[in-house]
Specification:
The protein is an alpha+beta fold. The chain is built from four helices and eight strands; from the N terminus they run ββαββββββααα. Helix content is about 20%, strand content about 30%.
Length: about 200
């Protein structure tokens, strides 16, 4: 069931420690949970949602840092992981509480900085969520974190590299690190994604 909303949150999400930067700007309903936001981030960057994730930010009502994601008893965390589908972004984000960290894939450890830029009235002519801007392609899934990604770029820039053909085959024929088109982003239904993930 779609929840009614009057406001949208505009976030800029930047993948950390990559130059030039890889970033996306999205607008999502104020009714979103952190799970919904996670799915929107995955879809707008082009991640495949194969791995665990977590958000870290200050809970403005307590002043204490919280971690939000998928509770997993196999990992020993410093803090309790709050289930993302039970936490509303509106309880955490405001113009006084603008930033959060989002980590995807605890092996490759892709760290993203989330910044709330604006809170806007809903445009009735727009289907939300929407990606309105961004730059550069997201690194390929499971490429080995930032060092692995940098090595991948070195290989594909040199057709004479001994690993070139093998890497191109692994990439499915090609990869353009400069390519991103916001119009190509397709958003999944977060509820459907959750059913697939947990059933």
């Amino acid at each position: 069931m779609k929840r009614k909303f009057d406001q949208v949150y505009q976030f800029k999400i930047t993948l950390q420690d990559i130059k030039p930067p890889v970033w996306r700007r999205i607008q999502v309903p104020e009714t979103y949970s952190f799970w919904d936001l996670h799915v929107a981030i995955q879809d707008t960057f082009g991640w495949l949602d194969y791995h665990l994730h977590r958000f870290e930010m200050i809970n403005p009502s307590t002043g204490v840092k919280v971690e939000i994601g998928i509770p997993d008893e196999e990992f020993e965390w410093d803090r309790e992981i709050l289930p993302g589908w039970k936490q509303k972004i509106s309880n955490y984000f405001s113009m006084e509480s603008k930033s959060a960290d989002y980590t995807y894939d605890f092996g490759d450890n892709w760290e993203h900085k989330i910044k709330l830029e604006k809170m806007l009235p809903r445009d009735k002519n727009v289907g939300y969520p929407i990606c309105i801007a961004g730059r550069r392609a997201c690194p390929p899934e499971d490429c080995g974190s930032i060092p692995g990604y940098e090595h991948l770029l070195e290989i594909i820039e040199n057709p004479h590299h001994e690993e070139y053909e093998e890497m191109m085959e692994w990439l499915g024929g090609g990869f353009d690190p400069e390519h991103f088109d916001a119009k190509e982003v397709v958003f999944d239904d977060p509820d459907e994604r959750r059913k697939i993930a947990f059933e």
